[in-house]
Specification:
Blueprint (H helix, E strand, L loop, with lengths): L2 H10 L11 E2 L4 H7 L1 E6 L6 E6 L2 E2 L21 E4 L2 E4 L8 E3 L5 E3 L12 E4 L5 E4 L4 E8 L4 E8 H6 L25 H10 E2 L6 E3 L6 H9 L1 E5 L5 E6 L8 H4 L18 H4 L3 H15 E3 L5 E5 L2 H13 L3 E8 L5 E8 L3
Antiparallel strand pairs: 1-4, 2-3, 5-6, 7-8, 9-10, 11-12, 13-14, 14-16, 15-16, 17-18, 18-20, 19-20
Helix pairs in contact: 4-8
Length: 349
């Protein structure tokens, strides 16, 4: 189905009506919709009042070819990996009719693919450490201060304009919203798995939790898993007995759906894909478990998490980005063999 056919099918549902004016179809392309929109008078069905109504979108009957859209732009390298509902894909492999995520985290259908040929590529680094590669024709949605309106406004510019005015104006890229991955079946409560990824012991036969300061953590785990805690003689470690079998919980049983974590030491920990690419609720839960077990927070609201595992570091960063959070990386060298990765998480207001 073409874009025009899709928009016409929307109008058949009665969502966009106009009596004496042309029907406008919102395309989701901010600049395009507002440039082609108009104001008209309409009666409020609830109050009977006549009000000005913004008809935002492309007039019916118009045929417009779009190469890029606000916030996503165009002309990015074919090798760029981007998240889609079916996992990460290279831009060059995407086809019309497939789906990717927009800035608001929603799955959005690709309505056209337009190869750009060979282009000069720029590498952009953002204040939180993220990077992106694109051509100078790539369109970015940016926040900037409007002197007349005395407030921040969202506008769209090609990279070439941003570069030319970078020293005289301040541009801020909007953060993406929480990505809407679909929920997939999991066997372990995500908060519990997060706690054990942070403080669990997977290298023995029986599942252990090693903690010092959070005394109620074992009880919270048991409430969710139907277990009972068994404190070991060393004082800061616990094992667990299943109330269903009355036996100690074994690592192999606990991680039966995440077998690659069995016998993995701290410095090789990671977040399994079926938890990393799950619903927002489950992703927040596993991140919350790790932070509850091993995170800290300062007086300014900055949350810190440290790990010696590079894979876990990358997983937490991806988890945070997919939830619409900011995650910055810091390094502390413990010795010449082990590098600690300290992550700072910020939650947008």
């Amino acid at each position: 189905m073409s874009l025009l056919e899709e928009l016409e099918s929307v109008d058949k549902k009665g969502l966009f009506k106009s009596n004496d004016h042309t029907v406008s179809y919102p395309t989701g392309i901010t600049v395009l919709d507002y440039a082609n929109g108009y104001w008209s008078e309409a009666m409020d069905p609830k109050t009977g009042e006549i009000r000005n109504v913004a008809n935002i979108g492309v007039p019916a009957g118009s045929i417009i070819s779009v190469i890029g859209y606000s916030g996503c732009g165009k002309a990015v390298p074919n090798s760029t990996l981007i998240p889609t509902p079916k996992g990460y894909r290279k831009v060059g492999s995407l086809k019309e009719g497939e789906y990717l995520f927009d800035r608001h985290g929603r799955a959005t259908k690709i309505i056209g693919v337009y190869p750009q040929g060979e282009k000069d590529i720029y590498r952009i680094e953002f204040s939180d450490g993220r990077t992106a590669k694109c051509n100078d024709d790539h369109i970015w949605s940016v926040w900037e201060y409007d002197e007349e309106k005395k407030k921040e406004v969202l506008r769209s510019y090609p990279l070439k304009k941003i570069i030319s005015e970078f020293n005289n104006r301040e541009f801020m890229i909007p953060l993406n919203k929480c990505v809407d991955y679909q929920s997939v079946p999991i066997s372990i409560h995500p908060w519990v798995l997060g706690v054990f990824i942070a403080k669990g012991v997977f290298t023995g036969k029986y599942l252990e939790l090693s903690i010092k300061d959070i005394k109620d953590l074992p009880d919270l785990i048991c409430d969710k898993m139907n277990w009972d805690p068994v404190k070991l003689s060393k004082g800061t470690s616990y094992r667990f007995v299943s109330r269903d079998t009355n036996k100690l919980v074994e690592v192999s049983e606990f991680l039966k759906d995440c077998p690659d974590l069995i016998n993995v030491p701290d410095y090789q920990r990671f977040i399994p894909d079926n938890y990393l690419y799950n619903s927002a609720l489950n992703r927040k839960a596993i991140l919350g478990g790790m932070l509850d077990a091993s995170g800290s927070i300062d007086n300014n609201g900055k949350i810190s998490y440290s790990t010696t595992s590079k894979s876990l570091k990358m997983g937490i960063i991806e988890l945070a980005y997919s939830l619409g959070y900011i995650c910055q990386e810091r390094h502390d060298v413990r010795d010449k063999y082990i590098r600690e990765n300290k992550l700072i998480l910020l939650f947008p207001s």
